[in-house]
Amino acid sequence: MDNNDGEQRAALGIVWAIVGVVVVAMLLLAGYFGVTAGKGADKPAATVAAPATAASGVAAGAETAVVGVPAVVKILFETGKSEVPASAATDLGPVEMYLKANPAATAAVSGFHDASGNADVNAEVSKDRAKAVRAVLVAAGVEEARVTLDKPQVSLAGDDAGARRVEVTVHQ
C-alpha cells in the first residue's frame, strides 16, 4: 500500500506542476496582450503576437505601444555595414502583421549612429540602414508610403552595438 501511495503522490505532484506551468503561461500571455487589470477590456484581441527577446533584437521587456507589437523593434547592424541582418525579417514580423491587419497604422524607421568618426558618413550609413529595414517591410507587402524614415540620429547608447541600430515604431 505504501508503494502505491508514493506513486500516487508523485503523479499528483507532476499534475500540479503541469497546472502551475499552464497558469503561469496564461498569466504571462494575458499580461502581454494587456488584458489584465482592466486593460484591453474595450479592445479586440491582438492580431499579432511575438515575445520580446533580447536575442531577436526586440527590446526585452518593452511595453507595447500598440497591442501585440513591441514598443520599439531594434535591428542591430555590423560596424560600417547597412546590410540587414538575417534575423530582421523575424524581428519585424509583428510589425509587418500589424500593419497588414490595420490599414490606418504606420511605422516610423529611425537609423542611429555613434558620435565617433565622420558625422556625414555616419549619417549616410544610418540612412542606408533605415532604408534597408524599410525595404524588408515593403518586400513583405507593406505599402512604402506607410513606412516613414526619420532623420538619422546620434545614439546615446553606451555601447557600439547599441549605436549601430535601426528602431521601428508603430503608430495608429
UniProtKB/TrEMBL annotation:
Enzyme superclass (EC): oxidoreductase
SUPFAM superfamilies in the cross-refs: OmpA-like
InterPro entries: Bact_OuterMem_StrucFunc, OmpA-like, OmpA-like_sf
UniProtKB keywords: Membrane, Oxidoreductase, Transmembrane, Transmembrane helix
EC number: 1.9.3.1
Protein's UniProt keywords contain Oxidoreductase: yes
GO terms, molecular function: oxidoreductase activity
Membrane spanning stretches: 12-35
Occurrences of domain OmpA-like (ranges): 64-172
A GO CC term assigned to this protein in UniProt: membrane
Record protein name field: Cytochrome c oxidase polypeptide II
Gene source species: Collimonas arenae
